[in-house]
Amino acid sequence: MATVFLLFDVGNTNVKIGIASEAGVHASYVLPTDRHQTSDSLGLRLVDVVRHAGYCERDVTAGVASSVVPSFNPILRQACERYFDRPLLLAPGDIEIPLENRYERPQEVGADRLVAAFAARRLWPEPRSIVSVDYGTATTFDCVQGEAYLGGLICPGVHSAAGALASGTARLPRISLDVQDDLPVVGRSTSMSLNHGFVFGFAAMTEGLCTRLAGVLEAPMQVVATGGFARSIARVSSCFDHVRPDLLLEGLKILYMESGIKG
Questions:
Q1: Last residue of one domain, picked from the residues 90, 119, 152
Q2: Residue 191: its pLDDT value, please?
């Protein structure tokens, strides 16, 4: 029988699901974060996800999650228990995240930010400082120095920025972020202007902030890009040392394996 970890990154917009083993994350899927669904509807969809990845329910040996949506957690717990006969382990509630949290109010830090920062430190232990830049609902810069999570910066996300722009523009074209050029093109259509503005604008914002963070964090510093838009932004940016879209899922896998918890 295969040994499979079912990993969940529960965000305000989407739930990212990872299928992993001790060797790493093998596949990932994205479902909407529907707080009004039942545990049965979610559980049946998760069974389909596991089967699509080439496994069966009996192969799942653990369910591990980080969540910023408390109302979704009971639905996910019940789905894991009924359809996989496994308890859901939440980080940091059920699994401690071994980073010193230096936030003024530690409980205010989203679990997703802490898990991604932990993953960055575990995967790249050499640099004194490491910054995880997550392109999600918000764009977050999370800073780790040694074994301490220092905090970070929160900026608008690509989706939220596009939504804010669309709310005041009746005929705004869809933003695809499908940009193949290495330099910004002076757009001769609204669609091109938007796509190049967003991709190169977020790249410039990232480069500028990382340059400034390098002035306040201890050297040497490395930067990792993660999240749904990481590859699009990193393709035109020179400030990233690593690009790992599934960084948070990798962090959940490492947390579970280090915890020694079984099932």
A1: 90
A2: 80
Q: Is 246 an annotated catalytic residue? A: no
Tell me how far apart the alpha carbons of residues 211 and 249 are, in angstroms, rounded to a whole number. Answer: 27
Distances from the Cα of 234 to the Cα of 24, 54, 92, 173, 244, angstroms: 22, 31, 29, 23, 10
* Euclidean distance between CA atoms 241 and 255, whole angstroms: 23
Range of the domain at 233: 100-250
Q: What is the DSSP letter of 28?
A: E
The letter for the amino acid at 156 is P
pLDDT at 25 (0 to 100): 93
- Of the candidates 168, 144, 164, the residue with the CA atom closest to the CA atom of residue 156: 164
**Domain end among 90, 113, 140:** 90
- pLDDT per 10-residue tile (average), the chain, 263 residues: 88 93 92 94 97 95 95 96 96 94 93 96 97 93 97 90 70 71 82 86 95 97 94 92 96 93 70
Distance CA 78, CA 38 (A): 9
pLDDT value of residue 172: 67
Task: List the structure tokens of 19.
Answer: 């299928």
Single out the catalytic residue among 9, 112, 134, 142: 112
Burial class (CB in 10 A: 0-12, 13-18, 19+), 94: middle
Residue 11 belongs to a domain with what CATH number? Answer: 3.30.420.40
